[in-house]
Design goal:
Elements (H helix, E strand, L loop, with lengths): L6 E4 L21 H15 E11 L2 E12 L2 H13 L5 E5 L1 H7 L5 E6 L1 H11 L5 H19 L13 H15 E3 L20 E3 L3
Antiparallel strand pairs: 1-4, 2-3, 3-5, 4-5, 6-7
Helix pairs in contact: 1-2, 4-5, 5-6
Length: 208
């Protein structure tokens, strides 16, 4: 899920990672492209790409885009931060509000967040070649949306997202790709054979 109400945003420059075998960084043992591919793997499982129109932005309605990864294992978040730093991607951290965590009986989780057009372009471009399925669609639509919004800078009413049908449509596509997924029950499954997904598969709505 995304960073919504109930979170507190922080910068945590001195995040301490337990020094055990599960959390040691792999930055010195694999290549740069392998690190980007590893980040893409994390994103396919734990990432959230979101786009919406914020009704109460500082300058009226505005497009709110975010790309975030959440995990209870801070070693994973540390690895993500290392890849971002290595590639010059700006980011910040977010934590659940402590009282909310206690109420929901959830373990503390750390989120690493990227926003802003240029930062998002850089982050998503790093992992796009290694993404598959649902997350690849979301990333492609997000990059199209960013390019479109950038092309409208300086145009009359270019900042008004609700007046722009292409902006609205791309946000809709990201939302659909994020929530509507092929139903696993429709897939043809056989041991030791590639999973087959029928084109006519029904969709299920994700709770993400």
């Amino acid at each position: 899920g995304g960073v919504e109400q109930g979170y507190m945003l922080e910068t945590l420059p001195n995040l301490t990672v337990p020094q055990n075998g599960d959390n040691l960084s792999t930055m010195e043992t694999i290549s740069r492209k392998e690190r980007q591919a590893a980040l893409a793997g994390i994103v396919m499982g734990e990432g959230c790409i979101s786009a919406r129109i914020d009704e109460f932005g500082k300058h009226g309605k505005q497009v709110d885009l975010k790309f975030q990864i959440t995990n209870t294992d801070v070693g994973i978040i540390k690895f993500c931060s290392e890849v971002y730093v290595e590639n010059g991607v700006g980011f910040y951290y977010a934590l659940h509000n402590k009282l909310r965590l206690e109420k929901l009986k959830q373990a503390p989780a750390l989120t690493i967040v990227v926003d802003g057009y240029r930062r998002l372009q850089k982050a998503l471009s790093l992992i796009l070649p290694y993404l598959y399925g649902n997350k690849k669609q979301q990333a492609e639509f997000m990059l199209q949306l960013i390019a479109h919004r950038q092309s409208r800078i300086g145009q009359p009413n270019g900042h008004r997202p609700t007046d722009d049908t292409e902006t609205v449509e791309l946000i809709r596509r990201i939302t659909v790709a994020k929530k509507d997924r092929p139903n696993p029950l429709d897939c043809i499954r056989a041991a030791n054979q590639v999973l087959q997904i029928p084109q006519s598969s029904t969709t299920i709505r994700s709770a993400e």
